[in-house]
Amino acid sequence: MYEDVKPEDAKPRRRYDSRRRQAQAAQTRHEILGAAHRLFLERGYAGTTLASVAEGAGVVVETIYRAFGGKAGLFKAVVEAAVAGGAARAERSPEQRPAIQAVIAEADPRRQLELYAATQPGIHARIGPLFRVLAEAAAADPELAEVSRQMDEQRLAGMGRFAQLLADRGALRPGLSVDEARDVLWTLNSHAVHDLLVVRRGWPPGRYRDWLSATLARTLLPDDGPSPS
Asked: pTM for the complete prediction?
């Protein structure tokens, strides 16, 4: 019977659409991150189960394990999405994000620090509630404590790249090493400092932004550095 089927009568195979599959996978990842973000804030880290995240995202638990490796990895991805300003932005490296590209492209080091400081109030406002969840849970969860250490190391490395950029352009204060500049950036830009000034002392975000920009400039740049354009 098979010899009676003509080639032109056979149903053509559907061409594999890799872009569509990638888009679907990205959408699933975004839905998981959104559900996890909401639940971590509502229930805390210990009170959030992967089953509840899976239910909120409309997926099975195995999908979360494949994408994030477990609850600690999922929490880390939620924080990274908050830092970036959304799950889609988090898929790009920091250097590919428009705000960071603007900082890198700026030739005036004082204006560079102004642009950088302008990104920080929003980032800290987004990650603050998650960091409070992290602080409460990390003491009792070694896996989450390791995630906290990794995020600190990543931020330190990012500040090191920024310090090196300033050094390569001859912008650092004489006698200030790249490592010292990195540590200044890492400390002054920390969420702990933002929390002290904005949350506990009630500084408006704009005041914090201006203070951060001015303090970084005084600490990192020469006294006779160029004025912002």
From this structure: 0.80
